[in-house]
Specification:
Low-confidence stretches: 155-159
Radius of gyration: 39 Å
Number of strands: 0
Number of helices: 9
Largest sheet: none
Mean pLDDT: 82
Helix content: 55-70%
């Protein structure tokens, strides 16, 4: 029996193809083991995440049970207690965003607002984007003096003009 060179080439190609496919399919379960190990590690990571998440939720619930309810005025009390600042937004005409700008400019207390001079008023009006004379018109100084003394502005004091 004699083979032609073409038949020998086809036989060698078939043998090489069989060898390559055999090597790819065997591996003695190595890839299957690696896949199972990866799956196991993934399931452990998910379980650990769920345990940490439930512990964090329990801690949040515990802290919420321990804390007092947050009501109106709490933010102002906290803001006043932190860093020795007064709640400047209690002055009529000062919004909360303007209060932040005043704090950035170095004004934190009612006494500082009460002690403003005309030049400082003009600088603040420009910084806050107010019309010239607004601080005098809204009488921030008198309001700050009253708040410094502990007097609370009310409806009657606004109507009578003594903030």
């Amino acid at each position: 029996m004699s083979f032609t060179p073409n038949e020998i080439a086809l036989l060698l190609v078939a043998l090489l193809l069989g060898l390559v496919l055999g090597l790819m399919m065997s591996g003695r379960g190595k890839y299957k083991r690696l896949w199972r190990d990866e799956q196991s590690a993934h399931h452990h990571a998910i379980r650990d995440r769920d345990v940490r998440l439930s512990a964090a939720n329990e801690r949040i619930a515990e802290l919420e049970r321990q804390s007092a309810p947050i009501g109106p005025g709490t933010a102002a009390a906290v803001a006043g207690g932190v860093h020795g600042r007064d709640d400047l937004s209690r002055i009529n005409g000062i919004t909360q965003t303007q209060e932040v700008t005043l704090n950035e400019a170095g004004y934190h207390r009612y006494s500082q607002i009460a002690a403003l001079n005309a030049e400082q008023e003009a600088i603040l009006e420009a910084r806050l984007g107010l019309r010239p004379g607004t601080i005098t018109q809204e009488d921030w100084r008198a309001q700050a003096n009253n708040l410094e003394r502990g007097e609370k502005p009310g409806l009657l004091s606004r109507l009578t003009g003594s903030a």
